[in-house]
């Protein structure tokens, strides 16, 4: 594989990165800090690599470098930006295995899914690089009206720990393509991969265009409050998203908020029970349930409920729990201790709420130091119970039932969240009819979580504001400007 030239005309070769250090990237330079910290490998409890803890001075220098780069970068022709982004994606492909290994080490997901995440990041970068942002133009007898999209300026991309590589790439690509320098802020739980992802960008972009700062919990608020960024592209919990919006409001920064979900699956009575139950179980427990778009409420039509639950239990029993480095593992550990303790409070509710457990239920996993939890299905808990109302973000899911389509739609929509939803049915017309009634930003028929970077992604209600990806996602990094150009002399 050869890596093509970027904007800097830099010719890269294989073995692009040195994986023995992890540094901030400020104005094209790799930097470390006096204080450092490390994440924890959630499968073993061992410390991850030392990473910087950015200081206020680092923040100032980084944002000022981004501001200085902004004017020039916004003037770089679109086709050159495209070439740089495509070259960057090629470089990621060369380094795919190293990124996959670090992802499993610090995030915990099985290696096969880590590789898939890196593949998706490459695909996202390439696809977004190929999107166009043309001017819209209306020509009339006496005037021409043009709508154009101009870069907002410096942006900050705040990334969560569940898909750190894909979600960082999904912010870097549209920001940079729109002409906006970006500062990436990784989650303190998964900093190493994102530091390397930004380091990898350096040969292809001028200094200050793609930067990264690793820090502790204080860094996010410092960035959202700072006057230089024009936009915060945030992915994380609804709780934090509200804080980000409040902080950004002080300088009227633009925000895109990609937040939590409580996705329903609606399964009608005509499906192939074994096949659909296996798919639904897989989509509830993928990434150990730590996906914004994981299936978090399973609604099955009453007449097939018992058989479907039985099949789902059988499918769930086949999903192996363990370290992501072991072959055939489907569920790695919970990513961090805080989340582990949070998920375990739902297991404590099993006793107090007298929930019926269909499979799992111990809140434990294989022996060892890792944060493992065996996948668990709760059989028909009360609709107002915490397992139904809240986003567990772990491998525990409620199994629920409905009588008819109307009830399914009502129950599925009975949530403050609105990220994703899916309908599973052999009657495609019926499924499409139900799909159009669901209040969510992403609705699938007979699949779930199958995203496409050519199209906008976002949530309804408390699942977010705005969209990322697709042409609308590019526009979200731009101001819209309408030009009214009279053809007659003044
Ligand atoms: P989180 O909200 O705790 O943290 C997300 C990021 O925000 C981290 O980088 C964190 O350091 C930073 N942060 C924390 N407090 C901040 C503040 N006050 N100001 C600015 N930044 C701050 O989320 P998490 O636990 O990392 O991720 C899990 C959540 O993310 C789940 O709710 C999940 O549904 C959601 N999520 C949503 C999407 C989506 O696209 N909608 C994708 C993945 C995850």
From TrEMBL:
Pfam families: Aldedh
Organism: Capronia epimyces CBS 606.96
GO molecular function: aldehyde dehydrogenase (NAD+) activity
Record key words, sorted: Oxidoreductase
CDD domains on file: ALDH_AldA-AAD23400 (cd07106)
EC numbers, comma separated: 1.2.1.3
Residues spanning the signal sequence: none
Protein name (record): aldehyde dehydrogenase (NAD(+))
Enzyme class: oxidoreductase
Reactions accelerated catalytically: an aldehyde + NAD(+) + H2O = a carboxylate + NADH + 2 H(+)
Record-linked InterPro entries: Ald_DH/histidinol_DH, Ald_DH_C, Ald_DH_CS_CYS, Ald_DH_CS_GLU, Ald_DH_N, Aldehyde_DH_dom, LUC3-like
Active site: residue positions: 258
């Amino acid at each position: 594989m050869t890596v093509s030239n970027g904007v800097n005309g830099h010719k890269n070769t294989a073995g692009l990165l040195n994986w023995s250090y992890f540094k901030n990237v400020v104005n094209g330079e790799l930097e470390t800090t006096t204080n450092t910290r490390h994440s924890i490998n959630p499968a073993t409890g061992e410390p991850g690599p030392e990473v910087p803890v950015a200081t206020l001075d680092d923040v100032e220098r980084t944002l000022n470098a981004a501001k200085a780069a902004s004017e020039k970068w916004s003037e770089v022709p679109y086709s050159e930006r495209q070439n740089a982004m495509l070259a960057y994606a090629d470089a990621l492909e060369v380094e795919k295995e190293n990124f996959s290994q670090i992802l499993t080490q610090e995030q915990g997901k099985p290696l096969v899914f880590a590789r898939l995440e890196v593949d998706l990041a490459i695909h996202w970068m390439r696809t977004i690089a190929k999107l166009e942002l043309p001017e819209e133009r209306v020509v009339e007898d006496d005037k021409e009206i043009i709508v154009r999209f101009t870069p907002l300026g410096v942006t900050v991309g705040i990334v969560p720990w569940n898909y750190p590589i894909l979600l960082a790439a999904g912010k870097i690509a549209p920001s940079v393509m729109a002409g906006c320098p970006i500062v990436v802020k990784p989650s303190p739980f998964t900093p190493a991969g994102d530091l390397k992802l930004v380091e990898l960008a350096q040969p292809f972009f001028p200094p200050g265009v793609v930067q990264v700062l690793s820090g502790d919990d204080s860094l996010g608020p410092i960035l959202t409050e700072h006057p230089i960024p024009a936009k915060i592209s945030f992915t994380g919990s609804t709780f934090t998203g509200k804080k980000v919006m409040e902080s950004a409001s002080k300088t009227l920064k633009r925000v895109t908020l990609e937040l939590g979900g409580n996705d329903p699956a609606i399964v009608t009575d005509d499906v192939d029970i074994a096949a659909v139950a296996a798919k639904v179980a897989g989509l509830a427990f993928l990434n150990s349930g730590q996906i914004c778009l994981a299936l978090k409420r399973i609604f099955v039509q009453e007449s097939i409920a018992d058989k479907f639950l039985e099949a789902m239990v059988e499918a769930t029993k086949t999903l192996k729990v363990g370290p992501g480095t072991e072959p055939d593992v489907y569920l790695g550990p919970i990513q961090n201790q805080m989340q582990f303790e949070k998920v375990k409070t739902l297991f404590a509710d099993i006793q107090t709420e007298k929930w019926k457990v269909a499979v799992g239920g111990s809140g434990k996993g294989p022996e060892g130091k890792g944060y493992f939890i065996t996948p668990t299905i709760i059989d028909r808990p009360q609709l107002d119970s915490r397992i139904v109302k809240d986003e567990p973000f772990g491998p525990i899911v409620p199994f629920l039932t409905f009588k008819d389509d109307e009830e399914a739609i009502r129950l599925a929509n009975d949530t403050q969240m609105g990220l994703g939803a899916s309908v599973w049915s052999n009657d495609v017309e019926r499924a499409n009819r139900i799909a159009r009634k669901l209040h969510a930003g992403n609705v699938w028929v007979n699949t779930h979580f199958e995203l496409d970077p050519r199209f906008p992604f976002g949530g309804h209600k408390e699942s977010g504001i705005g969209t990322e990806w697709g042409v609308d996602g590019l526009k979200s990094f731009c101001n819209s400007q309408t030009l009214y150009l009279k053809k007659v002399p003044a």
